[in-house]
C-alpha cells in the first residue's frame, strides 16, 4: 500500500529561477521514505528533471521507494540504500568562529549562478541564507541559525525537510561553480537529530572527486556542541546555467 500526498513547491523554495531547490525537493521525498523504511537504510533521491514550481505534483511513497510526479512525468525518485553509503560523508568540523571567517569569502555573494536559491541565494529573502565559504582544503563552512518558521510543531524542532536543504549547497560550493556550474543530480542523506529553531549550527561541505560531467561531494550539519545532526553525499551535474534561469 502506497501513501499519496499532494505537493506544491512554492517559489520560496526555488533553486534556479524556474525550478525547485534540489535539496528541498529531495527532502520531500527523503523524509517521506525515511518514515517507512527500516533501520540500517537511508533514502537516496535522484532528480530526474528540474522540479517545477507552483504546480500540482503528486508524491507516492512506500517501503520500496518514493516518486514525485508532474502528471505522467517523473520529477524525482527515491530508493532505500545501505547506511554504509554515508560512511565517508562526515566532514571534519570547525569552530563557529572559523566558519564565520570562511563566510566572508563566500563566492556566491558576488557571482552566484542561481541567486534565488532557497538554501544559499543572496536574492531569496525567505531562504536559509547559507554562505558556505572555502576553508582552503577542499572543504566549505558556514554558520546557520534556523528561523522560527522552519519548525514543524510545538516542540520547536526544525522540520527535517529543511535539514536536507541545508545539506545541499555547502557541498555544491566545494566545487568551482564559476568554472563548473552544476545542479544537484542525487542526494543521499541521514538525519540523526533535529536542532531547535534559533540554535547556532555549523554546516560543512567537502569535495570528493569528479567523473566527466559528474562531481561528488559530501556535507555534514553540526549543532552548537559539535554533535553531528545530519550527513549527506551528493552527485552534481555540470550544466549551462542559462538553461535553468
From TrEMBL:
* InterPro entries linked: HotDog_dom_sf (IPR029069)
Q: What is this protein called?
A: Thioesterase superfamily protein
Amino acid at each position: 500500500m502506497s501513501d499519496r500526498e499532494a505537493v506544491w513547491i512554492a517559489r520560496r523554495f526555488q533553486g534556479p529561477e524556474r525550478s525547485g531547490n534540489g535539496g528541498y525537493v529531495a527532502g520531500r521525498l527523503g523524509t517521506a521514505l525515511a518514515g517507512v523504511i527500516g533501520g540500517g537504510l537511508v533514502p537516496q533521491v535522484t532528480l530526474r528533471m528540474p522540479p517545477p514550481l507552483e504546480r500540482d505534483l503528486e508524491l507516492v511513497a512506500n517501503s520500496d521507494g518514493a516518486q514525485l510526479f508532474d502528471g505522467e512525468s517523473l520529477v524525482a525518485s527515491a530508493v532505500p540504500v545501505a547506511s554504509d553509503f554515508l560512511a565517508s560523508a562526515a566532514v571534519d568540523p570547525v569552530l563557529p568562529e572559523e566558519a564565520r571567517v570562511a563566510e566572508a569569502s563566500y563566492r556566491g555573494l558576488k557571482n552566484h549562478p542561481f541567486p534565488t536559491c532557497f538554501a544559499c541565494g543572496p536574492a531569496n529573502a525567505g531562504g536559509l541564507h547559507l554562505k558556505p565559504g572555502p576553508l582552503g582544503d577542499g572543504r566549505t563552512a558556514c554558520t546557520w541559525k534556523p528561523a522560527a518558521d522552519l519548525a514543524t510543531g510545538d516542540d520547536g524542532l526544525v522540520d527535517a525537510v529543511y535539514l536536507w536543504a541545508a545539506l545541499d549547497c555547502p557541498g555544491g560550493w566545494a566545487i568551482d561553480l564559476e568554472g563548473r556550474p552544476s545542479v544537484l543530480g542525487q542526494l543521499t542523506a541521514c538525519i540523526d537529530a533535529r536542532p531547535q529553531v534559533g540554535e547556532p549550527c555549523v554546516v560543512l561541505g567537502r569535495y570528493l572527486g569528479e567523473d566527466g560531467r559528474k562531481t561528488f561531494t559530501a556535507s555534514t550539519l553540526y549543532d552548537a556542541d559539535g554533535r553531528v545532526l545530519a550527513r549527506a553525499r551528493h552527485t552534481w551535474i555540470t550544466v549551462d546555467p542559462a538553461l535553468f534561469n
